[in-house]
Specification:
The chain is of the alpha/beta class and 758 residues long. The chain is built from 27 helices and 20 strands. It folds into 3 domains: 4-29 and 506-747, Rossmann fold (3-Layer(aba) Sandwich), CATH 3.40.50.300; 78-256, no CATH class; 306-444, no CATH class. One of its GO terms (molecular function) is non-membrane spanning protein tyrosine kinase activity.
């Protein structure tokens, strides 16, 4: 075997200019003018790389959604439909009325919608159903209601392992009376069933407890007032507990008003639909039915209110008028019996007729005034006109009376008695006819609204829609997972494609793309924290990452004759780029090809290459530099076949100045002729200056970038610092690259993308 010293002397070697030896320009390179394209392959690769993240997020959200769909309380919906008709559907129409109807907007339906939601209607329904009293079985949190629905129709054994009083079946309690002081509203009390149709009442945040019997009413004095309760029914086994609460009446009314959804079906159709949702099917059906009945009753009462008021007044006056008529008839009969039949003169008959007519008009005016006062005041012009007419009639009566007084006394008495009978008879008959007409109006009056569809207790809940919830959870999980994947990629800012480096530097400088090794991950998980690190090139030499290093070996052997010496440094901009992994495995790959290789761990900050070979750091580079040991003493021979290794040695304090010692350069000059390749692993380039000092002795410097971690700025800054130190890096090794969909590496077992540089 030929010694490297014969073919690669340290000096007297002419070499071509390095690839990245151009003077550094602080301005960022101008981007290449390319047509904007959508990197669909890159997007798909990001999704593929984050498949476990997306899958985990989707699975978690889906599981949560499934649990929610199973334990969520069902929500039912009941509805009723009302038709509001026009007030006068049969009214005559003409050209003007038909033309004006084109510009009118029907407001009757809008008014009826507001009346349906009014407290006048809702409060009656709340009071009739006593919705301000809330009684519910005490279920186990979250899942207790679901278990109760599965055991519907049967009573359960209360409690969880005999404790807590939780119910798991069809337990039910009915409370018809429950009154508490205002300061005790919305407090939660507990009703515990006992044997013998008895119960125990307690809770409310106070030391309040007493025993009671179902069906009896109890009044308990409190500091703020009186508590009153009556339990009508208790369907439960002893030990079962119920939560009972007295809510605010106004709050209950307002809550129902907010929950009612009232809409008009179609445009100006007059058909109103009322919807109400709740967790209890029978409860919302009863509530909506009560609201519908109360609304219809109120509407009809409003239509007949005027007729009922007039009828009430007439019902009070008719008995009085009947008694007056009877008294008039009795007096006339007594007069005739006492004086016999009297032949009245024509004048007396005429006067009597005039007086009777005047009396009739006077009573009609009184009746009319009474009806008008129900709607108007005394100062209204119509009432004033009636008063004037009545005054004129009174004056006429006085005139007739004066004329009649001129008749004989007997004729006057007969005329007066006859007049009273006639007037009272006519008035009583008129009022009786009016009352009968008002009764017919009250009975026959039809409201302009009718209940088209009455509420029906819903059989199936509208919520939760379990298939939709699960489907939406899957879609949401995929969306959030994808969003987090792309956000993580954007926040990281790392380069994930080696071609981006070449486009940035405008040169084919990527010597190798080393794929991520799942086998290395498995080996690392099995290794001990402070034990020997697995060397992938030795354990699994067919791994795709090792194959990529073999390709880099071929490229390096082609380029090495142009280097000034056979010393190669692998530098990384920052930590955790896999630099030590690449250096150790590449040294093993070079040694496996038959080359003599020396690997030097020059990371005096945190070097750990010795763990790959199971040797102690002990005697190493630091001791050889200070003269504490010879070169032969610090070299660990044949850690692998044809591979020697120099560890860091004891880590010194003045590390940067330590590498400036002349002994470091002399050591490299001493070992270089003995090996085909001297490979150096330095500290991070951007963190400390050690790599710049070591790079001055190297024939070639390669930058290591890690997929998704190293940024464009870090690569530019590393090249800048190396150029300022007079060092021209030869190329870049792109490490830990994820296999993309459709990549040839995934089809042929993995292999790097190489860019050979002369």
């Amino acid at each position: 075997m030929n010694h490297p010293a014969d073919s690669h002397p340290l000096t007297h070697v002419t070499h071509s200019p390095p690839v990245l030896s151009v003077p550094f320009d602080p301005r960022p390179p101008e981007p290449l003018r390319e047509e904007p394209t959508v990197d669909l392959k890159g997007y798909l690769s990001t999704l593929y790389d984050s498949r476990w993240l997306i899958g985990s997020i989707t699975a978690f959200i889906t599981v949560v959604a499934v649990l929610y769909a199973l334990v969520a309380k069902p929500v039912y919906e009941a509805n009723l439909m009302i038709h509001v008709e026009e007030e006068s559907p049969n009214a005559s129409k003409n050209i003007l009325s038909e033309a004006s109807s084109l510009f009118e907007t029907k407001k009757a339906a809008i008014a009826e919608m507001e009346l349906l939601r009014s407290r006048m209607v809702v409060s009656r329904a709340v009071d009739n159903l006593q919705l301000y009293i809330e009684v519910q079985p005490k279920y186990f949190p979250v899942a207790g209601f679901w278990f109760a629905t599965q055991n519907a129709g049967n009573l359960s054994d209360p409690g969880l392992f005999g404790y807590g009083g939780y119910v798991w079946g069809a337990e039910k309690a009915e409370v018809s009376v429950f009154e508490v002081p205002d300061s005790w509203l919305d407090r939660e009390f507990v009703l515990t069933a006992r044997a013998g149709n008895r119960y125990r009442f307690s809770g409310g945040g106070q030391r309040l407890a007493f025993d009671g019997t179902v069906g009896q009413r109890y009044r308990v004095p409190l500091p703020d007032g009186m508590l009153e309760i009556k339990v009508d029914r208790l369907y439960a086994n002893p030990g079962a507990r119920f939560r009972i609460k007295r809510k605010s009446r106004l709050g209950t009314i307002q809550a129902i008003q907010r929950s009612m959804v009232i809409t008009e079906q179609g445009k100006q159709s007059g058909i109103i639909e009322v919807k109400l949702q709740g967790e209890n099917s029978a409860r919302i059906n009863n509530l909506l039915s009560e609201i519908g009945r109360e609304y219809m009753r109120q509407n009809l009462a409003r239509k007949t209110e005027e007729a009922e008021k007039s009828l009430a007044f007439l019902n009070q006056q008719l008995p009085i008028l009947k008694r007056q008529l009877e008294q008039s008839e009795d007096r006339y009969n007594q007069f005739r019996n006492a004086h016999g039949t009297v032949d009245l003169r024509e004048e007396a008959r005429m006067s009597l007729a005039q007086a009777a007519a005047a009396r009739t008009r006077r009573m009609e005016l009184i009746q009319k005034k009474t009806e008008l006062l129900a709607r108007f005041t005394e100062d209204h012009p119509i009432v004033a006109a009636v008063n004037r007419q009545r005054k004129e009639v009174d004056e006429e009566l006085e005139s007739i009376a004066r004329r009649i007084r001129t008749l004989p006394v007997m004729e006057q008495d007969e005329a007066r008695l006859t007049r009273d009978i006639k007037v009272n008879t006519d008035l009583y008959t008129a009022l009786s006819n009016t009352a009968q007409q008002l009764r017919l109006i009250s009975v026959g009056r039809v409201s302009n609204v009718r209940l088209v569809d009455a509420p029906i207790a819903p059989e199936r809940p509208i919520k939760p829609n379990r298939p939709l919830i699960v489907a939406m959870a899957v879609v949401t999980g995929l969306f959030l997972g994808t969003l987090i994947a792309f956000t993580r990629r954007a926040m990281r800012g790392g380069i994930d494609d080696p071609q981006k480096i070449e486009r940035m530097l405008r040169a084919r400088v990527v010597y190798a793309s080393i794929p991520h090794s799942a086998n290395q991950d498995k080996l690392m998980r099995k290794s001990k924290p402070d034990g020997v690190l697995p060397l992938l090139a030795q354990i699994l030499p067919e791994d795709p990452a090792v194959e990529s290093l073999r390709s880099f070996r071929a490229a390096l052997q082609f380029s090495m004759p142009h280097f000034k010496n056979n010393v190669v440094m692998m530098a990384g901009p920052t930590r955790d780029l896999g630099k030590s992994f690449v250096a150790a495995n590449f040294a093993a790959v070079m040694a496996a090809s038959g080359k003599r290789v020396l690997l030097i761990d020059a990371d005096l900050r945190n070097g750990h290459l010795h763990r790959y070979f199971g040797v102690e750091r002990g005697k190493g580079l630091s001791r050889a530099i200070i003269g504490g040991a010879t070169v032969d003493e610090v070299i660990h021979r044949n850690v692998l076949e044809r591979l020697d290794f120099i560890p860091t040695g004891e880590l010194p304090t003045n590390r940067a100045e330590f590498l400036l010692h002349l002994n470091f350069g002399n050591l490299l000059e001493t070992v270089s002729p003995e090996y085909d390749l001297v490979l150096i692993d330095p500290p991070p380039l951007l963190a400390v200056a050690d790599a710049l000092i070591i790079g001055a002795h190297a024939g070639a410097v390669f930058l290591i970038a890690r997929s998704g971690v190293t940024t464009e700025g870090q690569i530019n800054e590393s090249i800048k610092r190396l150029n300022h130190a007079g060092i021209a890096p030869r190329g870049v090794l792109f490490n830990d690259m994820a296999l993309r969909l459709g990549d040839y590496r995934s089809q042929y077992g993995g292999g790097p993308q190489l860019a050979y540089v002369a």
